[in-house]
Amino acid sequence: MYPDTKISEVTMYRIKYAVRNKSRSFLLILISFIFISFIFIYLDSIDGNYRALENLGEQIPVSICLTDVSGIRQQGLRIQEKTADHLEQLDVKEKVLTAESYGNVSRGGQDKEKISVFLTAANDASAFLLEPESLTVSMEEFETMLSEDAGVCLLSREYAEERGLDCQPGDVLELNRYSGKYDEIGQVDGFEKVASTQIEIGGFFQGRVYDSIMTEEPNVICSADWLRGQYAAEGKPFYYSSARGVVGNPMELNAWKEKARELSFFPMDTQKPEDIAQIALSVDDRNYIQTASKIKKNIEILKIFVIPVFVLLILLEALIFFLSIHNQKREIFLMRCLGMKRFEIILQLLLEGSALAVIGSGAAMAALLCAGYGFPADTWLKVFLAFMAVQFLGSAFSAILVCRKNVLYIGKTY
């Protein structure tokens, strides 16, 4: 072995050489920076598509609604409680349910005249088109009223003025409830009394409630849970008039549809006449499926090119470090003349190349972290180690190839 002083002198020489040749050193650092950045950006592009696919249901929800068997009517249906409860089994989120009831009202202290009324119950304010300015209560109070099982309602301002009901919030109305009898085509053909009860006026609303002129506008709005409880207390069958929501996990849409087929929904047939008692399930998944298909295609394309792209980067990286060492024949000749062994020279070259690669790749990963790229720790480590392994092999091959030549041959060719 040669004295440590000689090795240290050569080491200092390599450091000074790297500093002196700033352009070459900066180029190797920049190449490492670019390669590492490209690899992680490519991987993030794949992960980004997966994330977009997982979150697609939030951006493009798969909406469902119950319709009559013809698929024409979505309001004014006769949906049995057990049919509406199927939506729980199907993991339907953001359910919006409505129910309807007929009746008449009167107010104590007046002439007790019975005034006909059409009542609509719901579990969520989104069942209606009412804006905050059309309510005498806040939207939060309206939401709370519909979500609770309490006998509180909103009364139509136009209806109260037209029928001469001199009412204020907090007043109590005597309500006689009736359920409609329907003919074969779904038209009301008589009424059956359910019960008498009281309901408190919580406030007023004005304006249209629905966007369809085919849907009957309510005079009273109350909680669906409260109305359902009233029918249950009298032992009377309760029916919802509409139901809609969104699929909880659209990623499992095929399994969801298969489960839906097992439940007691009628198959939709546009050739059949309207029948409000035969309930079908309508799923609006066209936009979701189209977008999901595009994202899956992007993922497939990116995955197909993963290996070719990475192989190309590896070959380019190995070639660059190979050429970098191959162009240092003059320095290798000088080190050989100073008496250093081939192994020691190869080690010096590898350490120099690895140091520059570590600086470049480390800077790239730091920049990516600051830019918000998030990968698991093992992913950062695997990519870094793979990059360093390729760099080391490319440098080692070039160093061995050059250093195995006779010193006189190296001197003639540099």
Write the layout of secondary structure elements.
Layout: H1 4-20, H2 22-54, H3 56-59, E1 63-68, E2 79-80, H4 81-89, E3 92-106, E4 115-122, H5 139-147, E5 152-156, H6 157-163, E6 172-182, E7 188-205, E8 220-223, H7 224-233, E9 239-240, E10 242-247, H8 253-262, E11 279-284, H9 286-304, H10 306-326, H11 329-337, H12 342-370, H13 377-403, H14 407-413
Parallel strand pairs: 4-8, 5-7
Antiparallel strand pairs: 1-10, 1-11, 2-9, 3-4, 3-6, 3-10, 5-8, 6-7
Helix pairs in contact: 1-12, 2-9, 2-10, 2-12, 10-13, 11-14, 12-13
What's this model, at a glance?
This protein is an alpha+beta fold and 414 residues long.
Q: If you had to describe this structure to a student in words, what would you say it looks like?
A:
There is one protein chain. This protein is of the alpha+beta class and 414 residues long. Helix content is 51%, strand content 20%. It contains 14 helices and 11 strands. The chain has helices at 4-20, 22-54, 56-59, 81-89, 139-147, 157-163, 224-233, 253-262, 286-304, 306-326, 329-337, 342-370, 377-403, 407-413, and strands at residues 63-68, 79-80, 92-106, 115-122, 152-156, 172-182, 188-205, 220-223, 239-240, 242-247, 279-284. The strands form 2 sheets. It has a 6-stranded mixed β-barrel, surrounded by 4 helices. Strand 6 and strand 7 (188-205) form a beta hairpin. The radius of gyration is 38 Å and the shape is elongated. 28% of the residues are buried.
